[in-house]
Amino acid sequence: MTAQHDHRRLGRELALFDTDPMIGAGLPYWLPDGAVIRHELEEYVRDLERRAGYRHVYSPVLGKRELYERSGHWAHYREDMFPPMRLGAEEVVLRPSLCPHHAVIYRSRARSYRELPLRLAELGGMYRSELSGVLGGLTRVRAIQLNDGHVFCTPDQVADEAARALELIREVYAVLGIEPVRYRLSLPGEGGKYVAAPELWDRSARLLTEVLEKSGLPFEAQRGEAAFYGPKIDVQIADGAGREATLSTVQVDFHQPEQFGLEYVGADGGRHRPVMVHRAVIGSVERAVAHLIELYGGAFPAWLAPVQLVLLPLSEAELGRAEELAGRCLELGLRVEVAGPEQGSLGARVRAARLAPYQAVIGAREAAEGLVAPRLRDGCRPSPLPADAFVARVAAGVAAREREPSLD
Ligand SMILES: [Zn+2]
Q1: Do residues 317 and 282 both lie within one domain?
Q2: What's the CA-to-centroid distance between 17 and ligand 1, angstroms?
Q3: Digit-coded pLDDT (tens) for 283-329
Q4: Domain enclosing residue 340, as ranges
Q5: Which of 76, 227, 274, 317 is the most buried (most CB within 10 A)?
Q6: Residues whose CB is under 5 A from ligand 1 (ion)?
Q7: Cα 10 from Cα 100, distance rounded (Å)
């Protein structure tokens, strides 16, 4: 990774996010331009999940200690959790994961096999008492926004649901331009970190192996990387320096349904235990955005770009025209700026706006004829075209989440 593409450096230079010792290490805040990227990414994933049959929920970032004792986090994951807060006779903790909340939502009423697979998703906060590592960026943080989801299904549906989750991850990566470095089948290692239920581990590992084999993706099995309650498929990405991290996961879990006594009434009228498929499509929003910042070096696809379109009136005379066009862009939902002559020569303004996917120059001729002279981020300068047609084309490219700006 070149220093130029370090997300911490770009994050500061482009005013995307920052940290402050008054808030604390590992607790970044998002500046307006960074918040735009995050919001667009979150909305994209929510929309995709809706289409894939997920229902979105919200659940609180705190829970009683008993909730995590029940889920197993307290016994197996406690060193990564913030210490509990005493509240009268109770202890509450910042949640280390969303799973227990979703299990509780599942069992909030009786479930029939007809409702399964029940797919619940949430973009929610979770917390990790990270002590070491590089704090100051978005990759090692103490407050994480997780793109989480849990599919509650019958044992017969597990393989299909895990395969669908993997497919969803691959679809998102194709749109975002993210290339995984490898798919990892993460299995338990030695020691007491894992719940003891050998037959369940074997069963889930077999299921995930089948899913990976059917997908035709190359994968490697690795011991010691499983979640404490089950094996998982980890989708690994790397930064420019080759440092690997897990972005997305698919997990099969027989343990938590057992712990929470989850049930559904089957076609036979009897009570059965569902299986939980845990999946994170873009995983931690912080890590996903860090990766995108480094991947694009700040030159984001138009749909993610903080500023999508910069209008450049050549002189004072065209300023009114540019402002009127900016108003129309705003109405179309585009993020637009007018860089007027008070900001310097045209060349200087073009350079200042070099990360914006689209620019449009308005000179005397363009103003008189209702045209703009477009410039694309790659330096391409198509011939002038009617302002309305140009703006409509930009909006269409944004809606289609095109990777590169184009007027074709
Ligand atoms: Zn989960």
Answers
A1: no
A2: 27
A3: 999 999 999 999 999 999 999 999 999 999 999 999 999 999 999 99
A4: 309-399
A5: 274
A6: 99, 278
A7: 36
